[in-house]
Amino acid sequence: MYRLASGRVLIAFCLAGAYAAGAVDPELRGHVKDENDAPVAAARVTLRRAAASAPGPWQTQTDPAGAFTLAVPDPGDYLLSVAREGYYELKDRPVHIEGTLELTLTLSSVREVFQSVDVHARPAPVDLAQTTNQERLTGTEVNDILYPNSHSFRNSMKLMPGVAEDAGGGLHFNGSSENQVQYTLNGFNLGDPISGEFRTILAVEGIRSADYSSGRYSPEFGKGSAGMLAITTDNGTDVFRYTATNFIPGIDTQQGIRLGNWYPRLGISGPIRRGRAWFADTFQSQYNNDLVPGLPSGENTRSGWAGSDLLHTQANLTPRSFLFADFLANVDNEGRIGLGALDPVSTTQTVHSRQYFGSLKDQVYLAGRYLLEFGYAHNEFSNRRTPQGQSLYVISPQGRRGNYFVTSNQGTSRDQWLVHGYLPQFGLAGSHQIEAGMDADLLRYDGDFRRTGYRLLGLSGQVLSQTAFAGSGIFHVDDTDFAAWVLDTWRVVQRFQIDLGLRQDWDRLVRGWGWSPRLAFSWAPFRAARTRVAGGYAVTYDAVPLDPFGRTRDQAAVTTEYDSSGLPTGPPLPTTFARGPQLKLPRATNASLSVDHQISARLIAGAKVLHRRGADGFAFVNALAPDAPPSLLPLPNGSLPGLYQLASLRRDDYDALQISMRQTFSGQYEWMASYTRARARSNALLDFNAATPLQILPELVPMPWDAPHRILAWSYLPLPWKNWSWATLVDARSGFPFSVQEESGVIRGAVNSYRYTFHFDLDLAIERTVTLGGYRFALRGGANNLTNARNSTAVNNVIGSPQYLQFFGDEGRHFVVRIRFFGRAGGK
Q1: 245: number of CA atoms within 13 Å, CB side?
Q2: Which CATH superfamily is domain 133-824 in?
Q3: Domains of the chain: which residue ranges?
């Protein structure tokens, strides 16, 4: 079975001075560091008397330099515990305090290895210092928990309550669009500058944690009105470690035996120079050979190849200076993108994309507990999409045919700089920790679009309209943004903390400023500190995507309408895009409240509410026909001339109540269950395929990913037999909404007033860990969608069509096999 690494936590005691009894009050001081000598900030230090009935405990938290000071009432024998999520816990270590005692404590990072030592892998989850509204996935959970397409780190995000995936693969955090979240890798922005979406391939074995913060979070991060996802990668240590996963190709038995999907992954980490420099490198390659139901044999598969490599290094230049460097490369080549039951092979595209990312960050710890952090990162994205031919694209009530009408070549880059500083803690009506920083981005976008056109057919096959495009479609957009922020973490008393923050954003394209006040609190109402009440309010802003500004410099469309006899009803009508006046930074106001209670040492229950109101979001509005009925065509209202102006008119509302329970056991075993009642509404007619909506509605309607009810539960637990375990996932939610339309594309009735059938996914796998020839392996076999639920992904929504309201794209049952290699059995 999987077990966590050895629970040995190094502790070095160094007596700072001896004083006569009663001369000074006894005091415990020290530093907490990791196995690479880097300071561990925000570690919770707890001290209690050795006698069980004695008063206490006393707690404090390490500052950014890893230092702490804790006053104790009397000399004597105490038990010391140190806890930080992501590290092995130091639990009840005896210390004797007479005067002032100074300690250096070393915590080891939690790692997914193959041992049978019972350790405390995680600290107690109720942490007063945690004021943010946060969901966390650790690297061990990403690798242990079963979920569809478990090779994909992106897909693992669905293991977080509140995160949903739409039919097109888009991620939606707490009802948001994908570009309303900021995505960071070791502190640097990783989102696509064109769309603001997350397009990065990462090997799951290289992830230490993924933390999604929403509602109330540090003003250090501010380019996501719906929150931020912080991805942290594994560090190397002085011990070489390596893993290999899925190094044997899979076999698919659907419609005969054929080569299935193959996701070989390799991870290796260790020292560059022992005690001074380390590396961790993770490589992922994936070959997809997917079967798409609802299409004829031979035309129902799509394949592609992608690869990713992430190298993370750390070098301790001096005992107080730590240099971190990352290099990431992504390559993705996919065929038949867009293939579906209503979209045959001819309508698909071939996609070639690349991403390169590099960063440097230097942390310098100065005398007096000052910390300065400097960083620079550069990332580049390129994407080329090619249709299967140049035939006219046809949209009919029975589906699409012909060749897709867009050929595109896009390239973008981001240069980003940051500086971050911490001041020493000081006392004033409690203790204060002040931190402040600045960041700046330089962005570039080059687009080259060549479009043919598309034709709209009616129920009887007659031509209703035809759209062609004119202009070069070649353009360049650049932008600069800047932000400055400050945060005061104010511990009023031991059981009450307030975070006060302020952030200022400026963007050159919008020519606007955004002020973002942040307030959060955390309160332990009872002395035992097993219950925490936390809440807060924040104004947050989105990063400005470059896509809508490129659209204003792109090709123009010309649409011709036809009557029942096939003759034009009038002259061709042009549609153009332009920048509107008085653009604003998209923003949201967030209010949240949560209650967490530690039922036992490893069992916690929680409830939280989130209230978000978004405003000033980007949308294109047809100034020539602002009251035209909503339409589902690529260019809506083609029968009318169009002058689409970019405006700050989008509004989004999201409300949610979430209840959850989670329990951990020895080793890596745990389970989680949650229920979310949510409501996601917008006044924009949102489209999975368009980052910026083209229509604003007079009322708020359900978003396409609105799921009023969702139950999410997963587990990784031992079986009665030694070295056997089982993993499960239950994901049950309301079906996503959709609209029905007339043959002309105009929506009939209320927008998104219909829903897909109820979605239910049950995944189950059994795993056995074995040792062969002195090497360690884990063998997993199971099935996704065990109950063979339909879980459709497409629907014919054209009124009058013979297939009207018929659902397509049933998921089907899938059998999964995984083999993981962990190196020598005697390794650590």
Answers
A1: 23
A2: TonB-dependent receptor, beta-barrel domain (2.40.170.20)
A3: 3-112, 133-824
- Distance, in Å, from the CA atom of 282 to the CA atom of 153, rounded to the nearest integer, reads 13
State which amino acid sits at residue 124: A
Q: How far apart are CA 781 and CA 770, in angstroms?
A: 14
Tell whether the torsion through CA atoms of 144, 145, 146 and 148 is positive or negative.
negative
d(CA 756, CA 702): 13
Interacting residues of 427 by C-beta distance below 8 A, sequence separation 6+: none
Task: Categorize the per-residue pLDDT at 102 as very low, low, confident or very high, splitting at 50, 70 and 90.
Answer: confident
Tokens 């949610």 correspond to what residue? 656
The stretches of 484-543 forming alpha helices (DSSP H) are none
Extended beta strands in 423-554, E state: 426-427, 431-451, 453-457, 463-470, 474-493, 496-507, 512-523, 531-541
CB 812, CB 293: distance < 8 Å: yes
565-587: average pLDDT: 93
Instruction: Note whether 3-112 and 133-824 share their fold.
Output: no
Chain mean pLDDT for the chain? 89
CA distance 26 to 19: 9
Is the distance from CB of 687 to CB of 751 less than 8 angstroms? Answer: no
Percent of the chain whose pLDDT exceeds 70: 93
User: Residue 248: pLDDT above 80?
Assistant: no
Query: How far is 640 from 642, CA to CA, in rounded Å?
Result: 6
Phi, psi at 140, each rounded to 5°: -65, -35
Going by C-beta distance under 8 Å and a sequence separation of 6 or more, which residues neighbour residue 733?
164, 707, 709, 710, 711, 758, 759
Average confidence (pLDDT) over 224-238: 93
Residue 542: CB atoms within 10 Å: 28
DSSP string, 124-164: -S--TT--SEEEEEEHHHHHHS--TTTT-HHHHGGGSTTEE
138: left (phi over 0), alpha (psi -120 to 50) or beta: beta
All residues at 6 or more sequence positions from 491 whose CB lies less than 8 Å from its CB, including other chains = 61, 430, 431, 432, 497
Maximum Cα interatomic distance, the chain, rounded to a whole number of Å: 106
pLDDT of 8 reads 37
Could you tell me which CATH number the domain at 3-112 has? 2.60.130.10
785 backbone φψ class: left, alpha, beta (φ>0; ψ -120 to 50) = left
> What is the rounded distance in angstroms from the CA atom of residue 78 to the CA atom of residue 58?
11
